[in-house]
Amino acid sequence: MKKRLLTILLALTAITAGAQTVKCVEPDAQAYIDLLTLAGYKAYKFEIPESAVGHMARFVIKEFKDGKEVSLDESDFGSMINSFSFDVGSSTIIVGFLPEKEGVPMRTVAIKWKGSMDLAGPFVYKYLITDCIDFMTGDKREPYSYYNTVENKEEIEYKEKTFLPLCLLGSAYNVPDQGYKFCGDFKDLCESSPHYYVIGIVIF
User: Fold this and answer.
1) Per-residue pLDDT tens for 99-143?
2) How far apart are CA 107 and CA 125, in angstroms?
3) Cα 45 from chain centre
4) Which of 4, 109, 136, 176 is most buried per CB count within 10 Å?
5) In this structure, are strands 85-87 and 56-65 parallel, antiparallel, or unpaired?
6) Residue 24, CA distances (Å) to 21, 27, 33 in order
7) Which helix (H) or strand (E) holds 192?
8) How far is CA 127 from each of CA 4, 85, 193, rounded to the nearest angstrom?
9) Rounded distance, CA 149 to CA 184, Å?
10) How far apart are CA 153 and CA 43, in angstroms?
11) Which of 52, 41, 37 is nearest to 156 (CA)?
């Protein structure tokens, strides 16, 4: 009897020692980044030459409709940011976009130039997609806007007093027999999106 109990205890010990478990661990920074991305937050980081530190700079936002640049006088965004200059205190720039709110035709961009300045402002856009079909019901959707963002991953040649494009906020474009899409790189979307903004800098 004692031998049988000892055998059972040894067997239970072996099972326990070899068991796989699930345990809670402290989330790292990447976990929060993933959650923020899912919630619609986007952040893009750029490095400029150290030689630019100490110069003056200006953020410039250009609006384009149907492939043509919109003048500041006619732009919904206007010159709210474009006329603001500041000292360059760092070689690191962060451009971030806050989530779009349903039913609100506005998107907010937050710009941080480490050691120099922080800036936030809304983009107002009016482009509506009106002829998409709801794949669940087959009925036409109510008019809605679909905008997304992409960063410029090309190496941008640094020149003083020259517009350096960093990010794009643009509307989806219609592909015959495929519907509306927002895909491709920075250059593709500049050629395809019917309405977009390019966020960049000028250093002088």
Assistant:
1) 877 666 677 888 887 666 677 666 665 555 556 666 666 676 655
2) 8
3) 10
4) 109
5) antiparallel
6) 10, 9, 19
7) helix 186-192
8) 79, 30, 11
9) 11
10) 13
11) 52
